[in-house]
Amino acid sequence: MCQRELERYISLYRLTVFRVALNYVKNYEDAEDISQDAFVKLYACDDSFAADENVKAWLIRVTINLSKNLLKKSLRRGAELPADIPCEDGGDIALRDCVQRLKPEYSGVIYLFYYEGYSVKEIAKLCGLTSAAVRTRLCRGRDRLREMLKEDQI
Amino acid sequence: MKQRYNAFFDRVTPAASDGEFLEGVLRKAENMDNNKKKFNARPVVAAAAAVAALSVGVTAAASTGLIDFNKIFGGLISAEDETVGGNLVSEMSEFRYEVSDSDYIIVPNGVTGTASNICVSFDIERADGQPVKDFMLRNGSGKELVTAMDYNVVTDTIQSFGSGLDDYSVVVNDEGDLTVMLSVTYSIPVDECTVRIMGSDLFDERELILFREENNVWEYFVDADGQPIHHGQDVSSLACDTALFGFGAKERKDIDMSEIRYFELDWGVEFVYTPNESALQTLTVADVSATYMEPVTVWDESDMLDASEIECTVKNIEVSGTGGFIEYDRDPAYEALYNEDKICSEFDQYDILLLTDSGKEIRAEFELGTGAGNSQKFFFTYFDNKGERIAVDISTVTAISVNGVVYELN
Fold this sequence. Notes:
heterodimer, A: mainly alpha, globular, B: mainly beta, 11-stranded antiparallel β-sheet, 4 helices
């Protein structure tokens, strides 16, 4: 892939990649690092993509894998990554705290479903899960989010 | 909630500009390229001696399927400066990995090797001093379950040596420091139990090398040219409770060891237990055709969750010593009633109990659902009163209770 193409894809999908990573690793610096690694892979990738959407899906898959690898590595070393999701002034701090506490397996699919607008089937493909598993995670994750938000209000 | 959630993520943005980000990507790509060139231009080999730094952790891997119970250990070993430089490597006596006082200790008892191969040997010990093998198997004749790791384990099958795929990479940075990242999958028998040793996917630009055991001698097969490199390690002399893994350089060439100033080995160990024959036996319910109202959760466009029910017909129930499944068809009108994307099955909230000939009840919990359209399958596993996952002696199971409805098992 040439540098010009890379620049275009960065402008198109960098935010998505960053937020997907953030939902898994819950940490700003690691999410930024993973984003860079995902685009390094794209830059080195020889595959040809039929459409931009395919590049986006490819980047999301790579990002999820990189994030899981990092989580696995940190678990093996007995050191959890510190939660550090950025929240601008005036941002929804309560929701930020809940997203930080939500398990990665839930927050990842919720983000793809809510924000990116992927269907359950598409998320299943992206995450390597069955549709039933995605639905269960979505349901439980949303329930958990709502519970946490209620708890925070109390 | 969706609106609130999306509004929050609208404002979650990275600090660096796209330009700065691009620079970072290009710099990383260039570094990776340089490392590759350096690696290709200079045959390298790892060496290690005393342990300079150690960081370890442990996680219980999710069990997969119905018969595997996994546990993963991991750690980081590194050595620096004067401790690196010999052709053969000394013992790592100070290294000791302890999970907990009731758990396991992994003790690397040394690194040996030549200029083109290196091998790390580990002893596995119980922290309480009891033999590891006693905690890794089930007494087949007595059918008495013995706790192993966090799980109860059923195994009395003697496994032969297996083969595995080893991924590794060697990276030399600009300062001449050398890092080896390792991924190994290998099986050895520890008495009557199979222990598979594996590393993690630690580095994406890894080279591939294949391990093969033949006549009790490990061979290293280089993927690129297929030429075997005989390490010469005689595994038949290994004592029970000893695990071993190793890795080799891509090319069999010597290297000036004085060039190596830093060594790092990131490793992991995973135990996999194989169930015995009786654990693989299954019981089924004859002619099951029960109809249930399956509880589901549906969410609408405004993102509200609501409880509902769908009629489903159970087609098949199967039970083994480590788990089972319930297979059923849903009301064909299901997809017309609800958008599949918006519905979540709560079948896994059902009360499932195994009933034994002694009147004991064993709790089962669903952990995985699969299926497409109207046909669904839910897998379950068993737990004791403390919430620990267990295996059961299938020969004592007589029936299964699903939400109070009892089915005889054959």
